[in-house]
Amino acid sequence: MPKKYDVIVIGGGHNGLVNAAYLARAGKKVLVLERRYVLGGAAVTEEIVPGFKFSVFSYVVSLLRPEIIRDLDLPRHGLEILPLDGTMTPMPNGDYLWRVNDHAKTRRELDRHSKLDAEAYDEFAQSMVAMCRFVKPILGMIPPDPTSLDPRDWKKLAFLGKRFQSLAAEDKYNLVQLMTMSAADFLDQWFETDVLKATMSASGIIGTFLGVRSTGTAYVLLHHYMGEIDGAFRSWGFSRGGTGAISSAIGAAAREAGAEIRMEAPVARIMVKNGSAQGVALETGEEIHADAVSSSVDPNLTFLKFIESRELPGYFLEEVRRYKYRGSSGKVNLALDELPNFKCLPGPGRHLRGAISISPSTEYMERAYDQAKYGEYSRRPYIDMVIPSLTDPSVAPPGKHVLSCFVQYAPYKLSSGTWDEQREAFGDTVIETIAEYAPNLKDIIIGKQVITPLDIERQTGLTEGNIFQGELSLEQLFFLRPVAGWARYRTPIRKLYMCGSATHPGGGVMGAPGRLAALEILRDTGKGKR
Amino acid sequence: MAAAREIVIVGGGHNALVAAFYLAQKGLKPLVLERRAVVGGAAVTEEFHPGFRCSTVAHAGGPPLPSIVRYMQLAKHGLEKLESPVRLFAPSPDGRALVLASDPSAAARQIEQFSKKDAEKYIELHKALERTGAILSDLLTLTPPVIEKPSKGDLWKLLKVGRKFRGLGKKEMMRLLRWGPMAVADFVAEFFETDLLRAAVAARGIYGAAMGPWSAGSTALLLLRAASDPFPVGNSAYPRGGMGALTKAMAAAAIQAGAEIRTGAEVEQIVVKDGAAAGVVLRGGEEISAKRVVSGADPQRTLLGLVDPVHLPPSFTVKMQHYRCKGMAAKLNLALDALPTFSALKNSSEGNAALAGRIHIGPGIDYLERAFDDSKYGDFSRAPYLDVSIPSILDSSLAPAGKHVMSIYMQFAPYRLKQGDWMQQRDALADTIIKTLAAHAPDLPGKILARQILTPKDLEETYGLTGGHPFHGELALDQLFTMRPLLGWARYRTPVKGLHLCGSGTHPGNGITGASGANAAREILNDLR
Q1: A428 in contact with chain B, both atoms CB, cutoff 8 A
Q2: What was the ipTM of the complex prediction?
Q3: Superfamily grouping for domain B2-41+242-324+474-528
Q4: Pick from A474, A479, A469: which is nearest to A504 by CA?
Q5: Phi, psi at residue B423, to the nearest 5°?
Q6: Which of A6, A47, A115, B223 could pair with A29 as two cysteines, CB 3.0-4.6 Å apart?
Q7: DSSP secondary structure letters along A383-418
């Protein structure tokens, strides 16, 4: 039977699209199959309340790899990133901590809280940049296998060793700590202002089921610090038109390169014959053949839903079942009649144009986690808010605004009740929490969308609602992601590849897994005919 | 003034005694200076009530490395090991109990009452820990390599460990790499479905640490401990006469080898001249000059307390200040009129024989985690995790005939309380521990003749453990192996020439194994060569 395609990519999330674009550019005939009516997976913009465009799930950008932006010429395809200006943390005592991109201003603000911390902040930033420089090439690297005797693996390990040696003594020390400590312990060594530590440690726990005092969160801190726009570390931004615009741009690049994208085409199974992938069957029963299949969905769907277990080795299946998802976050998107008014800094102003973080103390953050450990959503959660409509007026009607609230912790598994029963109460908790700092909030809400981990799973297919396709914990990173021994985008089934966030280097709208997987597929199958 | 001694050792704890022995064995004549009237540090037997003696602080061995026990001929010096046929008894609030025999297959049969699958998995875990333990135990006796510039000797030793590691096969190699950074709660869930069994095994990953079972890295601690004893729930062997008998035997061996031991000699200062250790000053002013000083005290006490900071690089001092050394443990010792009756044993065929090993109070993973939660915010656990032993069952020398001593290790009691201080809270702590136990053995309170409570503050003041930390510093991923106590200073040396560390604050630094002392002695002898 003639095969119409070289590669079928399952899932039209950002990684699937990056994967398809790179393959198509190399001359492969590629088909992307997306289950929903909209491209982007968890990076989508949808009009839930008429006139208001929500970045439904993922809401800020920074991790998107610059080489991908360049290679795929994404600005030409409509990508425009608008910088996000700093982070403001309101405090219960009416004070605030407001860090902005302007260095001198931030310094004055820190000075107000602690002179020592203002000093340490510069040193900290320098050290983090040095470490980001060390880790960055790892993000673009196919993970080596430390148990192998292959000289290629040893070369990579030696490369890492050499780079490590080239770090300054202090940075070496910091890096080792960063890989093994908790975010809170790590920051304790640098700073004394609790609200500063709490807000900074928050990036160590985003998307993970860990607390700020959990070992391993310091690394995630770095993972987020690496956010890079125009080469500057630690700068985040919005994509004009919402996060979905990123997916649209990548989709356009893929189409231009020749990839075909089919919407509302849910995959039911991956066809396997003699241990080799043959193509996919859709839920409609239609069978599509291809030389290779590249799955951007998570291992749970790929191996436990789309493939019959007899096709896979028992050990591998066991490891796939063991892989941890544990979604821990939710989202509340609000359509607002006017801007929220914060008690600590009343009225409109620049402080609303950046991120607003509800993270008043380290203890607050840790207690939020404690509740989640026993299967309850935090009654006073950590919230990271942005008002994209201030920077990008296209997402709301004139004078009105969108408030996007990322919320943690919301454990996928509740100890009592279901998320369908608790959704409203969860949304109310979030609004109550914010209203403690911005009392007018309750009166200005025109429409709302409450997204629980269960909703994330239902809408995007992300198992247990984990936004990174699996925990970013040390035992699930690098050569251990997603399954030890299978960290190189290949699977026990020939011609079946993984290209989603469940592979190295993991989650965030980064695109790196999609690109690295494409390079590996091309290495195995050679360039296309064109 | 007398001629300078070759070596002075600060502190007479078990690691210091092991180091003294190894150094004396090579013809050096080390002088051990112990602050208290007894040697042993935290491994001592003391009479806390007339006629009642027990291991006041540490009550279970690491156990001491067999190579050290043999080399020091401790048996000849009076060490006798008593082993209970039951390793662990873990009562549960539902009235059932897990009783685990020392023999793994017998233990598996006992687990069958809870779950057939768990029984099989228990054997599997035991075997897995034996295999990984065989590799990790080589690491225990290794001087951590310099990461920046490993020497040829380091590489050779690592290569040897690496070859053994490769012998595991790819699947197990990967598994070991994956296990290391994991939370022990996840680790035990990979094996067992019974919560009580999960908790009993997981406890080994949090014992003595400021970690709950959901803390990442707690599996590493369990694996480190399994390197000295592969039994999933740890050991239940006691020296006859308590832990003090072990250190007494060590002291006797050291003296016979040529070491000198002075008790009641508190070192107040380590003298540094021209960047090198030159001796010590005792409380009372006596000065003893020495070419080398070896400290069995914890790293913070040694380097922040005994050495004048002008002799240390400021960045080193800052790092040492950040070394995490705040204890979470307390101890309650009880003199009992008779054995308490555990409800869970009423219908058990084991009877009181089940009490001869260790008694684990911590019936579930959530229970252990909640116990930890309290401590994060400066409270001691209201329902604590307890590790209990009644050594007088096997060793009648510890209590008058028919009477008993109960030794209770309690976790979590943070060194720093949010409200009040330990002077005010000590009785409340003791009462909480007794209440927790009484839930399982209701007649316990009526049988108590006397009690001795040791809060983290007491552990610091009486036993010299800074921050009350029983292991001289957190056993977390960032303070282990090449990072113990600090990255770049894991080779038993310090920035002061001729000043060495040999206590639990150095690799492998975990319980009463003696490995830190032996490793330090080896490095000192290397320097002298």
Answers
A1: no
A2: 0.92
A3: FAD/NAD(P)-binding domain (3.50.50.60)
A4: A479
A5: -60, -40
A6: A6
A7: EEEE-HHHH-GGGS-TT-EEEEEEEE---SS-SSS-
| B294's tokens | 């070896």
Lookup: tokens for B51: 């006629």
Instruction: Determine how β-strand B404-411 pairs with β-strand B385-389.
Output: antiparallel
User: Using CB atoms within 10 A of its CB, is residue A376 exposed (0-12), middle (13-18) or buried (19+)?
Assistant: middle
Tell me the chain B residues in contact with residue A475 when contact means C-beta distances shorter than 8 Å.
178-182
According to DSSP, the residues that pair with B448 across neighbouring strands are B336
Q: Give pLDDT tens digits along chain B (529 positions).
A: 567 899 999 999 999 999 999 999 999 999 999 999 999 999 999 999 999 999 999 987 668 899 999 999 999 999 999 999 999 999 999 989 999 999 999 999 999 999 999 999 999 999 999 998 888 888 888 899 876 677 777 778 778 888 888 888 888 888 888 998 899 999 999 999 999 999 999 999 999 999 999 998 899 999 999 988 899 998 888 899 999 999 999 999 999 999 999 999 999 999 999 999 999 999 999 999 999 999 999 999 999 999 999 999 999 999 999 999 999 999 999 999 999 999 999 877 778 889 999 999 999 999 999 999 999 999 999 999 999 999 999 999 999 999 999 999 999 999 999 999 999 999 999 999 999 999 999 999 999 999 999 999 999 999 999 999 999 999 988 899 989 999 889 999 999 999 999 999 999 988 899 999 999 999 999 999 8
Q: Do B148 and A172 touch (CB under 8 A)?
A: yes
Is the distance from CB of A239 to CB of A248 less than 8 angstroms? Answer: no
Name the residue in chain A with its Cα closest to that of B371. A370
Give me the residues of B, 236-295, that contact A with CB < 8 A. none
Report CB contact under 8 Å: A188, B147.
Answer: no
Q: What is the SS3 assignment for A149?
A: coil
The minimal CB distance from B377 to the residues A147, A177, A363 is found for: A363
Beta-sheet pairing, A287-295 with A445-451: unpaired
What angle do helix axes B116-140 and B104-112 make, rounded to 10 degrees?
150
Q: Which of A176, A189, A214 sits opposite B487 (nearest CB)?
A: A176
For residue B490, the chain A residues in CB contact (below 8 A) are none
The verdict on a CB contact (< 8 Å) between A214 and B178 is no
Angle at A317 between CA A283 and CA B190, to 5 degrees: 130
Of the partner residues B215, B322, B377, the one whose CB lies closest to the CB of residue A214: B215
Q: How far is B409 from chain A (nearest CA, A)?
A: 24
pLDDT tens, A433-477? 999 999 999 999 999 999 999 999 999 999 999 999 999 888 898
Instruction: Please indicate if any CB of chain A lies within 8 Å of the CB of B170.
Output: yes
Beta bridge partner(s), residue A232: A229
pLDDT digits (tens, 9 = 90+) for B38-85: 999 999 999 999 999 999 999 876 688 999 999 999 999 999 999 999
Hunting for tokens 């014992």 — which residue is that?
B207
Average pLDDT of chain B, as a whole number: 94
Distance from CA of B383 to the nearest CA of A (A): 16
CATH 3.50.50.60 residue ranges of chain B are 2-41+242-324+474-528
Nearest beta carbon to residue A485 from set B147, B174, B488: B174
Nearest CA distance, B242 vs chain A (angstrom): 36
- Are the beta carbons of B31 and B9 closer than 8 angstroms? yes
Burial, A523: exposed, middle or buried (Cβ in 10 Å; 0-12, 13-18, 19+)?
exposed
Cis peptide before A143 (omega within 30 of 0): no
pLDDT at position A64 is 86
Contacts of B25 (CB under 8 A, 6+ apart): B257, B258
Q: What is the pTM of this model?
A: 0.94
